[in-house]
Amino acid sequence: MPTFHFDNTYARELPDFYAPWQPAQVPQPALVQLNHALATELGLDATALDSPEGAAIFAGNTVPDGAEPLAQVYAGHQFGGYSPQLGDGRALLLGEVIDVHGQRRDIALKGSGRTPFSRGGDGKAALGPVLREYLMGEAMHALGVPTTRALAAVITGERVRRDGAPPGAVLARVAASHIRVGTFQFFAAQGDTAKVQQLLDYVIARHYPEAKDAANPTLALFQAVCERQAALVARWMCVGFIHGVMNTDNMTLSGETIDYGPCAFMDAYDPATVFSSIDTQGRYAYAKQPGIAQWNLARLAETLLPLVDADSDRAVALVTEVLEAFPARYQQHWLDGMRRKLGLTTAQDGDLALVNDFLALLQAQAVDFTLAFRGLADGSSRDLFANRADFDTWAVRWQARQPVVSNQANPVYIPRNHQVEAALEAAVRRADYAPFQRLLALLQHPFDAQPDAAAYALPATPEAAAGYQTFCGT
Question: Is the separation of the CB atoms in 135 and 440 below 8 Å?
Fold first, then answer.
């Protein structure tokens, strides 16, 4: 059997934060995709895992030695409304391994059956959402965005109760950890300050050890989390990514992107873009993501107040100061990212206006976000504008900055919505995984143009893109 060298600190140190559980058995597990590079990075034998034995592990039929499967408990604000108990309703943390870089990583199964937190769901996952998460995670990783990643995707040999009864599947997901803002909310809402302190100490030791020796470790931890989230959301914005479901149970303390349900990448630039079918009010629209991140961090701050200072007024003042600094920290990360995309090698006072004016041009003429930046290196951006005179006027200011644009700052390939849907449809309807594998290969090298892959760089036609929606992978 393939060997995992588990060292399960979450199971060992936080016994009241989960329910021990076993994955459901499935009839015919088979590997669809194994992430060989990630397996090697985790110190695993990829060759041994690329086998029926590996499929059995990733489907949940075989629990490897040293694993301690558990369903984590958490709460969360979902679209602004508080749910006091959520938790892993169709996921199990198998355990933790130390990768070749010395970093601790979770290995979890998603779609592995009912748990005590399933809330009436079947705990299963369908093949389409599993493959979507695989594609999105690998694309984001290749784009340099902190993210959870897929180690493997397996089909289970059964159908799940969804529209069309699609094939069942399980995703093996790797994360720095699966601790969320909602994990803190669960215990804080119960008034269990001791448990919040226990979780805080664990997060500091695992993710922010430098905070331990700070004058106020709780406040130092909160400052560090805010900084990581500011950097993370700025990276989302710089690649045109829309998460779609920025609930507090989908914000990790580690600063990784998690939960690729109704997410998508924007084509024509429009700050109001929403794809998620359940985001009917546009709460999580592209331009609102920085503000939502700050709102979520405020919810985290509320859970930490008793640990920040015994004087509640002083505690509120201290966390408020950190929260009020978030927009400036976000804008600094975002502007730095945009400078790289525009090829600006120095920082000047007029840079923010230069960036915003370019984005305003894109919006006014419905120009593709990704292609507009990519084309700056070879001059092809101009051809994307119906009114080229407007672009030329802006370009005079830009060229005055003597830009040096690198293709390594602007991808040529992103997960275009129509290409993703075509790949998933082929896999789900015809068991044809070739389109998925072709798209995956390109997304793993998003900055390197391939001569036979020009179509993958193009958005869908406006007619085909009209009304496109994404759905939660439940």
Answer: yes
